[in-house]
Amino acid sequence: TPPSTLAPIAPSPAAPTRPAFPATCQAVVFEAAGLGFALPLGAIGRIVHRSLLRQDPKIPGLLYLDDQPLDVVDLSLLLQQTQAARPDSGAAEAQFFILTEVGRAMAIAIDAPPVIMALPLGNVRDLPQAQRQQLRDLAEQMAVVEIGETPSSLFLLDLQALAALGLA
Fold it and tell me: Percentage helix, strand, coil, to 5, in the chain?
């Protein structure tokens, strides 16, 4: 067969592409016990000011939002910050609460409003075991991000581990 009569080779159809993983994750970033923490935005139910919550004077550590009980988690106390080292610690003084639910509703006490930021997933690293233990296994990973012009470490809070402690 003369070469001019050969059918041209059709280009192969493009191989199906797998969707790329996102480069960032929207996260709620906050400080507790002098450390930076982050939670994925999807894990957050609401962020509320103390004025929206009602405290039960008979049961310390229990707050209500619209008659729904919330277990309060104070990371400063949980991570063994003493009252002397940080006199303003304690859920009683916290002005904001991050509401989330892992089995049951909980409120994470924080002193200042959190910020929402795009957390670069390429900067996420596993924590060494010793550092995990210092954090009571509440974080297994961290990310180094620039807040302003300063590099900061953010520990990725593990809500399942927090709930497993029986404190939330």
Answer: 15, 40, 40
Of the pLDDT bands very low, low, confident and very high (cuts 50, 70, 90), residue 89 is very low
Nearest to 108 by CA among 57, 160, 70: 70
**Mean model confidence pLDDT for the chain:** 81
More reliable by pLDDT, 9 or 107: 107
State the Cα–Cα distance between residues 38 and 78, nearest whole angstrom: 17
- Of 26, 38, 24, 34, nearest to 114 by C-alpha is 38
CA–CA dist 107, 74 (Å, integer): 9
Q: Which of 42, 76, 71 is nearest to 56 (CA)?
A: 71
Place of tokens 């103390």: 50
Torsion (CA) 60, 159, 121, 48 in degrees, nearest 10 = -40
Q: What span, in angstroms and rounded, lies between the C-alpha atoms of 12 and 84?
A: 70
Judged against a pLDDT cut of 60, whether residue 1 lies above it is answered with no
* 133: phi then psi, degrees, rounded to nearest 5: -65, -40
